[in-house]
Write a structure and sequence with these properties.
- There is one protein chain.
- This protein is α/β, with parallel strands linked by helices.
- The chain has one domain: TIM Barrel.
- It has 11 helices and 15 strands.
- The strands form 4 sheets. The protein has an 8-stranded parallel beta sheet with strand order 2-3-4-5-6-7-8-9. The protein has a 3-stranded antiparallel beta sheet with strand order 1-10-15, with helices on one face.
- β12 and β13 form a beta hairpin.
- The radius of gyration is 19 Å and the shape is globular.
- The relative contact order is 0.15.
- The structure holds (4S)-2,6-dioxohexahydropyrimidine-4-carboxylic acid and zinc ion (ZN).
- Zinc ion (ZN) binds next to loops.
């Protein structure tokens, strides 16, 4: 097969940062994706509808004129966010709220310290039909970093779903067999996003020939058995799994650092990576469901009308992009990928 055409995809989990950085990363996503769910973990987290709307305007100003792109906005849950803000958020078109357990990842210090603190907010979200997006890792330092997602399911997610059976939840960037199996066991109201890097890589990548910070993200890459489970889930046609790159740009100087930031930048080549992953298991026929159909269905949104062509054509990944005053290095920088993507 030398090419496949799919309905234009959406990215259901994306970080674009702010200020000058937007000019580098927004065009990369808008070149292939029609919409993206924008993460609210800015240095000053987005906790009000008003702040999300002005951020949306700044993002839209970075979209090249010849492209159409719709940022889908989210808010950041803190211990102090007001339940009354939920109706305001809904009225402004905010689609979801993001739960970062405090300290779990980049810019999560103001996240939730105890989920019980936000029960009134969750109650309101459930009522209004606002989605809950979860970074599913416990922060208990006594839990091994590779087990934090599996432990989150037992300690947080199962009780949460019991207390809010009508709340629609996306378990973001899942990385384990346990998470796949849990999502598969729930019939209604739970879905998961999967990144391209977790479909393509296992944790050996972080240590290959030296410590490789560009492969460091959170949740951290897991062992091969988990990668295979993720790939199976993503390519199974199961409507509960859909695309979310978690493309997370950081200055190269902060990745190549004694305390490297977590996050892989994949936005510019994301569809090439997903195509390779699906091809590796002979399931390119399922890529459209995963990338373009399952996400809108779960979010209750319409399908896109344009098409994206994926061609079996070598694609050299850029070494770096100018990024603010520094540079941004994409995952697989300098390597050649097998698929190229082009909007029709
Ligand atoms: O690797 C990650 N990077 N994981 C996250 O949860 C956050 C993200 C970021 O914002 O850099
Ligand atoms: Zn993320």
């Amino acid at each position: 097969m030398d090419h496949i055409d799919i309905i234009q995809p959406d990215d259901w989990h994306l970080h674009v940062r702010d200020g000058d950085f937007l000019k580098t990363v927004v065009p990369h996503t808008a070149e292939h994706f029609a919409r993206a769910v924008i993460m609210p973990n800015l240095k000053e987290p987005l906790t009000t509808a008003q702040s999300a709307m002005s951020y949306k305007e700044r993002i839209l100003k970075s979209v090249p004129d010849h492209l159409n792109f719709e940022p889908l906005m989210t808010l950041y849950l803190t211990d102090h966010i007001k339940a009354s803000e939920m109706a305001v958020a809904k009225a402004h078109g905010v689609v979801a709220l993001k739960l970062y357990p405090a300290g779990a990842t980049t810019n999560s210090d103001l996240g939730v310290t105890n989920i019980k603190h936000i029960y009134p907010v969750l109650e309101e979200m459930q009522k209004l039909g606002l989605l809950l997006l979860v970074h599913g890792e416990v922060t208990d330092p006594s839990v091994d970093v590779f087990d934090r997602e599996a432990v989150f399911i037992d300690r947080q997610l199962i009780p949460l779903r019991k207390d809010f059976p009508g709340l629609r939840i996306v378990f973001e960037h899942i990385t384990t067999k346990e998470a796949c199996e849990y999502v598969q066991s729930v019939d209604e109201g739970l879905a998961a996003t999967l990144t391209a890097h977790h479909l393509l890589l296992n944790r050996n990548a972080i240590f290959k020939g030296g410590l490789r910070p560009h492969y460091y993200c959170l949740p951290v890459l897991k062992r091969e058995t988990h990668r295979l489970a993720l790939l199976q889930a993503a390519s199974s046609g199961d409507a509960r799994f859909f695309l979310g790159t978690d493309s997370a740009p950081h200055l190269a100087s902060l990745k190549e650092h004694a305390s490297a930031c977590a996050g892989c930048y994949t936005a510019s080549v994301a569809m090439s990576l997903y195509a390779s992953a699906f091809e590796s298991v002979g399931r390119l026929d399922q890529l459209e469901r995963f990338a373009s159909l399952n996400g809108p269905a779960f979010y209750g949104l319409g399908q896109n009308t344009r098409q994206l062509r994926l061609k079996k054509l070598p694609l050299k990944v850029h070494d770096a992009y100018p990024y603010g005053l520094g540079e941004l290095k994409p995952l697989f920088a300098g390597e050649t990928l097998e698929w190229s993507a082009q909007l029709l």
